[in-house]
Design goal:
Length: about 240
């Protein structure tokens, strides 16, 4: 009679509770399963943990330093500013630089070429071209020697450039023709839409956030305006 009229839900619940308490195997199994579940759930979000110890260590984290490119930013560059120093127009500066960069696979070069094509600028083919790692490109275009590169490249080729940095920040590509600086193109990354909110939530949890980037303030000022919760730390 008890089997028919008894409270089966209560009995099964009590039996399972007794089983968990009396058998250590359940506890031994549940802890690693919790870690595996956490690691599996994180991997679906693109977060990789080395093991359970790494998950436990998160409880003690007081500060997090983020790399800028590809982490807080989208990792896709775009031209944000073109400035001429002499008689050449902005479109002419872009055409010269785009023609030199067209064979390069560097992300900055590709963004300049893409910008030129988007604005329907006709690009030529240089007679000679040499890509200098960490500096830029030296090319021969229509019988003229063209340099497209950073400030260090201009200094090494003894090309004087105007003082000061562009307000937009980002990577600066100087364009020099026959030893004279004719202009510069600023290429910058774009902030991820979720970056500011993520930094805000971490700060609300009492976690200090920092952005590892160029030690010069102008290089990250544009990103800081878009993501005020990101603070610069010198990566040197």
């Amino acid at each position: 009679m008890l089997i028919i009229t008894g409270d089966w839900h209560k009995w099964v619940y009590a039996a399972l509770t007794f089983l968990v308490i009396s058998c250590p195997c359940a506890l031994v199994l549940s802890v690693p399963l919790a870690y595996f579940s956490g690691i599996g759930a994180a991997s679906k979000l693109g977060i990789l943990f080395k093991g359970g110890n790494s998950i436990e260590a998160l409880a003690k984290v007081k500060a997090i330093a983020f790399d800028k490119t590809g982490t807080l930013t989208n990792g896709t560059f775009t031209v944000t500013q073109v400035q001429t120093f002499g008689v050449l127009s902005n479109r002419h500066i872009l055409r010269i630089c785009g023609s030199c960069e067209i064979a390069s696979t560097h992300p900055v070069a590709e963004s300049i070429v893409a910008y030129c094509k988007k604005n329907k600028l006709k690009l030529g083919t240089p007679e000679k071209i040499q890509e200098i790692p960490g500096r830029g490109i030296e090319a021969e275009v229509s019988g003229r020697t063209v340099l497209c590169g950073n400030e260090k490249m201009m200094q090494e080729y003894s090309v004087p450039i105007p003082k000061g940095q562009p307000a937009d920040g980002g990577s600066v590509v100087y364009v020099a023709v026959n030893g004279k600086a004719e202009g510069r193109i600023v290429v910058a990354d774009t902030i991820k839409k979720s970056a500011a909110e993520a930094m805000k939530e971490l700060n609300a949890m009492g976690i200090h956030t920092a952005m590892l980037t160029d030690p010069y303030r102008y290089a990250y000022r544009r990103q800081e305006r878009k993501c005020p919760y990101c603070r610069q730390e010198d990566r040197r």
